[in-house]
Amino acid sequence: FTLTPNSNGQNGSVWYPNRIDLRYDFDINYLVFLGNDPGGADGMAFVLQRAGNTVQGSSGSGMGYGGINPSIDIEYDTYVNQDFQAYDPPYDHMALMVNGEYHHGTGLGVSPVYFANQYGGSVKDGQYHASRVVWNAATTTMTVYFDGVQKFTYTNDIINNYFLSDPYVYFGFTASTGGLSNQQAVCINAST
Questions:
Q1: Is the pTM of this model over 0.90?
Q2: Across all residues in the chain, what is the average pLDDT?
Q3: Which helix H or strand E contains 160, and what residues bound it?
Q4: Which residue among 14, 27, 77, 79 is least crowded, i.e. fewest CB within 10 A of its CB?
Q5: CA-wise closest residue to 122 among 183, 18, 37
Q6: Which residues contact 66 (CB under 8 A, 6 or more apart)?
Q7: How far apart are CA 163 and CA 140, in angstroms?
Q8: b vs e for 94-129, b when ≥16 Cβ sit within 10 Å of the residue's Cβ?
Q9: Are the C-beta atoms of 145 and 189 separated by less than 8 Å?
Q10: Residue 92 in contact with residue 123, Cβ under 8 Å?
Q11: Cβ neighbours of 192 (radius 10 Å)
């Protein structure tokens, strides 16, 4: 699925048509394409949310998930935003954010920020990168992988703490561009 063409001011999303039940495990494998212009922007996200299968968040630094609330958002941020609250590191990075917040300086980033590329280089390299999100319902732990490397784990009762005790959510992918751009796409390999 192409989420954004290589054009400025674009916003795209794709959602699985049916809700999933967070009381059960899931394992979603997918490929992300983050562009081929190392100076391009803005990034994409894997999102769990309750707003429906047509929702779109904000563009530009919002990476298409900005403002979707409630939500769990795993961002693949490929641009260093200079916003005073962004606190973006000077490299392509990943983080787990909540409730559509994309500024790391607000304290709503619930995980530290991690290199997307384990050596700190650009992931806007014209290649597809393997990603995986695993949810263990019994331990309420989410584990995130990128290019075969475990990036982080996050343990939280997200059903009760973020989704108001409702275990049914939509999952999908969002992306956006702003004043700079890149083509961004996702290919879902398998989900269980």
A1: yes
A2: 91
A3: helix 158-161
A4: 27
A5: 37
A6: 57, 58, 59, 100, 101, 102
A7: 13
A8: bbbbbbbbbbbeeeebbbebbbbbeeeebbbbeeeb
A9: no
A10: yes
A11: 9
Amino acid identity at 173: F
The pair of structure tokens assigned to 1 is: 């699925």
* Tally: H helices and E strands in the chain: 1, 13
The residue whose two tokens read 């991690």 is 114
Work out the angle at residue 27's Cα, subtended by the Cα atoms of residues 49 and 36, and round it to the nearest 5 degrees. Answer: 75
Q: Token match 């309750």: residue?
A: 50
Contact 10, 180 (CB under 8 A): no
What single letter denotes the amino acid at residue 49? Q
pLDDT digits (tens, 9 = 90+) for 2-36: 999 999 999 999 999 999 999 999 999 999 999 99
User: What amino acid occupies position 63?
Assistant: M
Residue 84 has pLDDT above 70, yes or no: no
Count of CA atoms in the C-beta half-sphere (13 A) of 93: 19
Asked if 12 contacts 174 with a C-beta cutoff of 8 angstroms, the reply is yes
H/E stretch holding 169: strand 168-176
